[in-house]
Amino acid sequence: MLKQSGNIAYAASPLLETTNFISHGFLSRLGGISKPPFASLNFDIREGDAVENVKHSKAIAGRLFGFDASRLLTINQVHGSDIFTIDKPVKDISGLSKTSADAIITNQCGIAIGVLTADCVPILLADPVKNVVGVVHAGWKGTAKGIIEKAIETMVKQFDSDKKAILAAIGPSIGQCCYKVDETVIKEFGVRSLEFKGNEFIEKKGTAWRVDLKKTNYAQLLKSGILKQNISVEDICTSCRNDIFFSYRADGKITGRQLNFIMMKK
Ligand SMILES: [Zn+2]
Description:
Blueprint: E1 2-5, E2 8-11, E3 22-27, H1 51-65, E4 72-73, E5 83-86, E6 103-106, E7 112-117, E8 121-127, E9 132-138, H2 140-144, H3 147-159, E10 167-170, E11 180-181, H4 183-193, E12 202-205, E13 208-211, H5 213-224, E14 231-233, H6 248-251, E15 258-264
Parallel strand pairs: 4-7, 5-6, 10-14
Antiparallel strand pairs: 1-2, 2-3, 3-15, 6-9, 7-15, 8-9, 8-10, 11-13, 12-13
Bound molecules: zinc ion (ZN).
The site of zinc ion has 6 residues, from loops.
């Protein structure tokens, strides 16, 4: 479900919108000031965009969603499966951004936790009973390592969440339509994917393989014990719609990153 506010377009989960304790959004690439190849609402300086532009992106996102830009936390994503947790108040979060991990989980209010993507799958998690939120970055490597399953386990073990209460929202990411991969990926990915009814998430046409990352993460959520009615999936493909979203595949390697965030309100 795409929404528009001023120049900013973003996707929201109809499921997460039914709760009133959180603010969340899967932002698009529209509405910022970065120039090509980062045009325009870019949140990542690692590919060479100006710091000022990214600062501007954070400020306008903060204004729209009600957080202070200094309380937006993204970390050093490394395509692994480590989960970073915050379970006590942190005054200055700036030092935390150096943490290498691909998921953040917290029970603290007022910290907007986010992952940056351009085709990879962003997943937002919320437990409205224990008041815990999480954000996960799942590319093919993270998906092959089962990062979403690890994140759910962490919510249960460390934050006492009941799986039946957890809401999960899979955000805009590359669809099977555009995700051609080679044998190396299939080899690693296949091991996990084969746990679910043969290889329904892998399709072979001629010599080309295509993987469905969203469906695989969806299946992993179900396997983790998350209820079907508590999962929402944004179907849009970032590569087909690189006019709206940054796409590593469609934009030609050097591109920006969109923000996917969730925050517990104070
Ligand atoms: Zn596509």
